[in-house]
Prior knowledge:
Layout: H1 2-21, H2 31-43, H3 47-54, H4 70-85, H5 87-95, H6 97-129, H7 142-169, H8 174-184, H9 187-200, H10 205-227, E1 229-236, E2 238-241, E3 244-247, E4 250-256, H11 263-272, H12 274-281, H13 289-296, H14 302-323, H15 326-335, E5 338-339, H16 350-357, H17 363-382, E6 391-398, E7 401-409, E8 423-424, H18 433-447, E9 449-452, E10 462-471, E11 474-487, E12 509-515, E13 529-543, H19 549-555, H20 561-595, H21 602-622, H22 627-634, H23 638-666, H24 672-686, H25 690-696, H26 699-718, E14 720-721, H27 731-740, E15 748-755
Parallel strand pairs: 8-14
Antiparallel strand pairs: 1-4, 1-5, 2-3, 6-7, 7-15, 9-13, 10-11, 10-13, 12-13
Helix pairs in contact: 1-7, 1-8, 4-5, 4-6, 5-6, 6-7, 6-12, 7-8, 11-14, 18-20, 21-23, 23-26, 24-25
Amino acid sequence: xxxxxxxxxxxxxxxxxxxxxxxxxxxxxxxxxxxxxxxxxxxxxxxxxxxxxxxxxxxxxxxxxxxxxxxxxxxxxxxxxxxxxxxxxxxxxxxxxxxxxxxxxxxxxxxxxxxxxxxxxxxxxxxxxxxxxxxxxxxxxxxxxxxxxxxxxxxxxxxxxxxxxxxxxxxxxxxxxxxxxxxxxxxxxxxxxxxxxxxxxxxxxxxxxxxxxxxxxxxxxxxxxxxxxxxxxxxxxxxxxxxxxxxxxxxxxxxxxxxxxxxxxxxxxxxxxxxxxxxxxxxxxxxxxxxxxxxxxxxxxxxxxxxxxxxxxxxxxxxxxxxxxxxxxxxxxxxxxxxxxxxxxxxxxxxxxxxxxxxxxxxxxxxxxxxxxxxxxxxxxxxxxxxxxxxxxxxxxxxxxxxxxxxxxxxxxxxxxxxxxxxxxxxxxxxxxxxxxxxxxxxxxxxxxxxxxxxxxxxxxxxxxxxxxxxxxxxxxxxxxxxxxxxxxxxxxxxxxxxxxxxxxxxxxxxxxxxxxxxxxxxxxxxxxxxxxxxxxxxxxxxxxxxxxxxxxxxxxxxxxxxxxxxxxxxxxxxxxxxxxxxxxxxxxxxxxxxxxxxxxxxxxxxxxxxxxxxxxxxxxxxxxxxxxxxxxxxxxxxxxxxxxxxxxxxxxxxxxxxxxxxxxxxxxxxxxxxxxxxxxxxxxxxxxxxxxxxxxxxxxxxxxxxxxxxxxxxxxxxxxxxxxxxxxxxxxxxxxxxxxxxxxxxxxxxxxxxxxxxxxx
Length: 762
């Protein structure tokens, strides 16, 4: 709640600044004549009145925020259109990640400022031309012109800055909120107008109430349509892992009814405002062709209304096609094994496809649909405990059915050794004064201040410097910075750089001769001697706080330093005891695994390595980074990652086999009551309904996990603290030796299954 309150207050503060700026007039402008002009424009149905609504009245009052956020919106529109039209920009948005998006955002800002300058020029031209033969400027000199145009442009830049800061530190989208604040600011004047109608008798109470109800109904309808969506059902294909079948779940693809939102209206308004903008520079004579064209773009003309409607429809279609790309969605569904029930992939007639690729092309979907269930049935029938992906060979597929062979790796036989009454070392926890002082250091560092000193720089000091690097007398990319803070002795710069700055003072200029390391990431600089020209602006030293009771009050909830240290010692002791217990339990399990005899199939380790890599890929993608991009950034490949994961995979397999064997030896079972309690615990942990947890996590997985947990306690509860026995040759070592030597036969079974159901491939 405090964080939410802070964001709300920050948003309100920015809105207050926006409204305050919308009331500050730009100098050298006759606001009285300007007000008369806008009143006349409103009567004539000019576009200016419509634009004034978006600015919150800032345009009609010629305030510093007269341009409002419209230049930025127009810039965003232009960049979006260019992104679709130019493939390089599209790739930058899709594949460039955060850097690409930031570059587009930066270009949008620059373009917004440029459009703000152009609109400021056009508005100045309108003010200078005036109406009725009178200029709306009190001063027509060059200084006044520059002041007016620069003020309008600066106001645009400031509004963009405020909008982005609302997005970063406030609530919601800053640009939308500022636009909304400008429109809503007209509310009080509209209410006054409505009240005047009641007072003068122009409008009755009943009609007023009807107007309010209709207005509220329109708002509700708009909100409803903005959130309305058509949900297309999506089914994901089944896949078999070991003895279990995964996938097959149903979800939906949400399609917004109003995918384009309010953007088509803004697009159309921006384009139709162009004639009005041109008229600010050049006012056509009455009765001329230009005057007739200008009248066509009056908001009250039939031509304007029809064109406005057509542009909204056109932009709605265009924007919706950008937001919803059916080809891209179809590819993503195909990649993840998803399909829409009742619809086959593709568009071409069957005979054409058969003529080009043969009838077998239609059997792929049938195989994907029939194989998982047939394989699972065969595994269940034969009571096989599969522990890896099967090697599948399609024997025959056709209208008669599907025949395949599956080479299955089954769980190896485990011969348990000693697993009860084991001994392992467990260190005693002792907390010294030095340990507590080390715990205090982070708090001291956070309270440390940097102060400017009038002396030579020492190791540990921070120097503020300008520097530029030269290779063979020429500056190189990335070798220049100004006002850079560098802690001497931190090792953050090239070896030899920081050391040569020890002894320098503020105002000193020095040339540093250094050599880049041979393994430097920039090949053109690796191993090359360079010269850095450095100027020292400031030397700063650390000013440590006084560690006393006042310090304890500032950095903790304790009133005395003694109490604070006592609490730090207790927490440190608790952490070390927890870690020692974990180390103790890990040593016991290592003994259990060393004591057992088992030949671990390579396929089992490879399968577990694949699981580890897939888990890592999901975590990276959850952070918004495409996994392919991550591999490119790190210089890795899937094969390398699998190879690196094999060591961890082997440990997981050994532990799982050992615990599974203990479960069987101890005849450990999980009751229905225990299962239900675990479901409740998971529901509380993830803040979900119990039924949803049951739907997401199958009971067999939970029973297995809980039984393994009980097996661990069989080992831990019977163990004693003492000297660990001599280490035996472990199953890990055996597995490594077998991998280096001749390949041993796997414990596998072959199963031939036949599926007589005719694949449907019409």
